[in-house]
Design a protein that fits this description.
By secondary structure, this protein is of the alpha+beta class. The chain is 44% helix and 19% strand. It has 2 domains: 5-207, Metalloenzyme, LuxS/M16 peptidase-like (Cytochrome Bc1 Complex, Chain A, domain 1, 2-Layer Sandwich), CATH 3.30.830.10; 229-409, Cytochrome Bc1 Complex, Chain A, domain 1. It is built from 15 helices and 11 strands. Strands 1-2-6-3-5-4 form a 6-stranded mixed sheet, sandwiched between helices. A 5-stranded mixed sheet has the order 7-11-8-10-9, sandwiched between helices. Helix 10 (273-280) runs antiparallel to helix 11 (312-328). The longest helix has 20 residues, at 115-134. It is globular, with a radius of gyration of 22 Å.
Length: 410
């Protein structure tokens, strides 16, 4: 069976579908190549606000009818916003698939942004911002983006600022959409047991008459990273610390080998080097992890942990010791083999999620023009050498390349 089928309508919207057996659930959604990095300084938070407002009224539905349409048949309707993407999606029994397609199409392309709903949702988003600020683990990650991507839209908080969120009107949403929406950068992604012929017939009914949108937006490339150390005093009981730097873009062939390196260093496995060194050996932290995010033109690598203030310096020393080991000591053949097997197993498990695959498929086609098969990815992982890992560690992990943001208790 093919990994997926696809079709492109004259307006540019692309339908991609993966048919799977042994499920009665359909997952589907629109993934748009628009995110918070596409905002102007006075538009900060509008992409995320748009995501909220899509549920608040269209030309033929009020908010209640939108929220009830999928929920009333036991399904789930949801959305998210990232730095580069907005997604509206649903999961439900496949005999209600057309309901989901019609609804998602309606909220994506026919929202009317009622002023009364904008006023109400503004309060909801301000509460969401307050909630994140009350959690230092969330707040420090948002602020670290601003430290690394200083004076660039990648550093914007996805939620925006209080001032910007309070300023948006109906016209601002329509203007942002006109400035950024390209229908040839819109993917309708679908995973279910339904045959592609059926999916395409439904898509034809609801997508073919959507107008063609062609914005002239160009994303500004980020290329002026300067390492910086920042300390903030907060009303908290633990010290929170993030250290990291820029890394590789979604198009860089070093992205997968680097992901392998980061997984070895501080991935979700309890046997990661950082976890064994700082939690298991010394008990200084409840959790410590390393992660990497790839964007269109750059990437972000970071290590995140919280500890008592008296053990903060020791944690940083241990962390830097692990980075130094990776820069100076090549992995042995058994270490490299085990790291590969662990990552391969994690990827295989993640592909079992049909919802996760649906979202990944749409994003991958937007970013790369195709979906790499699991076997293609596994082949790239298996080709990584100890020399590759050593080279990448020396490119990304030198201490003089790392920014650090620390929250200390007042």
């Amino acid at each position: 069976m093919k990994e997926y089928d696809e079709f492109i309508f004259p307006n540019g919207i692309r339908v991609v579908h993966r048919q799977v057996s042994n499920t009665k659930i359909a997952h589907c959604g629109f993934i748009l190549n628009i995110g918070s990095r596409d905002e102007k300084p006075d538009q900060q938070g509008i992409a995320h606000f748009w995501e909220h407002m899509a549920f608040k009224g269209t030309k033929k539905r009020k908010a209640y009818h939108i929220l009830s349409r999928v929920d009333s048949v036991g399904g789930e309707l949801n959305a998210y916003t990232t730095k580069e993407k907005i997604c509206f999606y649903a999961s439900l029994l496949d005999n209600h698939f057309e309901k989901a397609v019609e609804l998602i199409s309606d909220i994506t392309f026919h929202s009317i942004f009622p002023e009364k709903e904008i006023k109400k949702e503004r309060g909801v988003i301000l509460e969401e911002m307050a909630m994140y600020k009350d959690d230092p683990g969330d707040a420090i990650q948002d602020e670290f983006d601003a430290v690394v991507f200083k004076n660039h839209s990648l550093g914007y908080n996805i939620l925006g600022t209080q001032e910007s969120v309070k300023s948006f009107s109906k016209e601002n949403f329509h203007q942002f959409i006109l400035e950024n929406l390209n229908t040839d950068e819109v993917i309708f992604s679908s995973v279910s047991a339904l045959p592609f012929k059926k999916v395409l017939k439904v898509a034809q009914k609801y997508f073919s008459n959507i107008p063609t949108f062609k914005s002239k937006r160009k994303r500004h490339v980020f290329n002026n990273f300067k390492p910086e150390k920042v300390i903030r005093h907060k009303p908290i009981s633990q010290a929170h610390c993030i250290t990291g730097t820029t890394s590789f873009s979604i198009h860089d062939p070093r992205r997968i080998p680097f992901f392998l390196l980061v997984n070895l260093l501080g991935g979700p496995g309890m046997n990661s080097r950082l976890n064994l060194s700082i939690r298991e050996k010394y008990g200084f932290v409840y959790g410590i992890d390393a992660s990497v995010t790839a964007y269109q033109d750059t990437g972000l690598f970071l290590i995140n942990f919280a500890t008592e203030q008296k053990t903060l310096e020791k944690c940083v020393q241990l962390l830097m010791k692990e980075l130094k080991k990776l820069r100076e000591t090549p992995l042995g053949s058994m270490q490299l083999h085990q790291a590969k097997q662990q990552m391969i197993g994690q990827l295989a498990i993640s592909e079992e999620s049909n919802l996760g695959f649906m979202l990944m498929m749409g994003k991958s086609i937007l970013d790369l023009g195709r979906v790499e098969t699991l076997n293609e990815v596994l082949d790239k992982i298996n080709k990584v050498t100890a020399s590759d890992i050593l080279d990448l560690a020396n490119i990304v992990f030198p201490e003089n390349r790392l920014s650090m943001l620390t929250y200390l208790p007042e």
